[in-house]
Design brief:
By secondary structure, the protein is mainly alpha-helical. It is built from 4 helices and 2 strands, in the order ββαααα. The longest helix is centred in the middle third of the chain and has 23 residues.
Length: 137
């Protein structure tokens, strides 16, 4: 299971408050995971933040996700299998966690679970060019 999430990041800002450096760390267990699963896990967590806390972080979370996928593509040149694993993890994480966390009312939780199922099915069926992981390809 993926373990890469926003809680694994520390950021360093410069004197003006601009981003200077991002550090990736793990507070519990450090090991190399399956690439697509780690990408999907992080993407799902950021997506949940923008869905459940839109008034606070929708724009910021969207920018983080956009840049993460773009930079990951540049750095790792992922193949279709990595993108497939990522979208399946993304959908699965939303479908499962969306029902378990108290980040919204029942209607929002239901919408997130259904969105997760749709993401999962679309990814499994190979609709990657139209999916949230399209920037990886």
């Amino acid at each position: 299971m993926g373990d890469f999430w926003p809680g694994n990041l520390m950021v360093q800002l410069d004197e003006t408050g601009e981003l200077k450096q991002i550090y990736v760390l793990d507070w519990e267990l450090t090991k190399e995971g399956l690439t697509g699963i780690e990408v999907g896990q992080f993407a799902a967590e950021i997506h949940l933040l923008r869905r459940c806390n839109a008034e606070v972080c929708k724009d910021t979370a969207s920018l983080v996700l956009e840049h993460f996928l773009k930079e990951y593509k540049k750095a790792a040149e992922p193949d279709v299998e990595v993108a497939r694993r990522a979208i399946v993890q993304w959908g699965t994480h939303m479908a499962i966690l969306g029902a378990r966390v108290g980040w919204g009312d029942k209607e929002l939780s239901r919408a997130i679970v259904l969105e997760g199922v749709r993401i999962l099915v679309d990814g499994y069926e190979g609709k990657l060019d139209e999916s949230l992981v399209a920037p990886l390809l």
